[in-house]
Amino acid sequence: MALRTMDWTFLTEAARDPRTTGAVAPSGKALARALTDPVRTLPPGPLTVLEAGAGTGAVTRALIPQLHPGSRLDVVEANPRFAERLRRLVDTHPHLAGEPERVRVHRSYVEDLPGEQRYDVIVSGLPLTNFTPDGVEAIMARYLELLHPGGTLTYFAYLGTRRARTLLSPRADTRRHRAVEEVMAAYQRRYATGRWSVWANLPPARVWQLRRPEPPDQGPRPRRPECAATGTGR
């Protein structure tokens, strides 16, 4: 079966810049569903949502139909070719007919995202294990800064990547990967509210859900029940 145009685009960009693309295929439907779970499970009402590292839009396509009236989605993508495809997606998506301004595409790195907007949900598609530990620390700190208190971040990591790098990559890359995992483990210990494995993806992935704490003098924001941390897939 011939690959769709967006798949060829993804493969081309992965070959051009594997450190920022970070995969050989777009996220599958199961992974996209797991990453966007908070948007579905929060109480009905307007939400502010940020998607970082949107690629060719596999997760964006899952997000748009879930947006309640009055919601806003900001999509951040640094790759210019991906960003242009995302703009075309927004311009032609049937759920946005007559109101494409509900979704805005920013050609930017998330660390450089301008403005004072804060978000109820952030969905990260960035290949964090491809960055340096300092780079991951900067991204995670920015995510927490961009979230409202009580807001939720979801992100993923491919399963088995440390073993693969140990076998196939230079020692320096293996050490960098291990250091990035240590940075992420610290955030998971402090902020994680759930995790689950997504086997129906190429390659399989683990999705993490983190939450920015509420201020000590403020009660929790109303939320729907937390998603189960088992057995579903991204």
Task: Chart the SSEs and their pairings.
Layout: H1 5-16, H2 18-21, H3 29-35, H4 37-41, E1 48-52, H5 58-63, E2 72-76, H6 80-92, E3 103-106, E4 119-124, H7 133-146, E5 147-158, H8 161-168, H9 171-191, E6 192-198, E7 205-211
Parallel strand pairs: 1-2, 1-4, 2-3, 4-5
Antiparallel strand pairs: 5-7, 6-7
Can you put this structure into words, describing what you see?
- The chain has 234 residues and is α/β, with parallel strands linked by helices.
- Helices cover 38% and strands 20% of the residues.
- Strands 3-2-1-4-5-7-6 form a 7-stranded mixed sheet.
- Helix 7 links the parallel strand 4 (119-124) and strand 5.
- It is globular and about 55 Å long.
- The two termini are 23 Å apart.
- The model is unreliable at 1-6, 8-16, 18-22 and 223-234 (pLDDT under 50).
Task: Record keyword descriptors for this entry.
seven-stranded mixed beta sheet; 234 residues; 7 strands; alpha/beta
Low-confidence segments: 1-6, 8-16, 18-22, 223-234
What portion of residues is helical?
Answer: 25-40%
> How is the quaternary structure best described?
single chain
Overall spatial form: globular
* SS class: alpha/beta
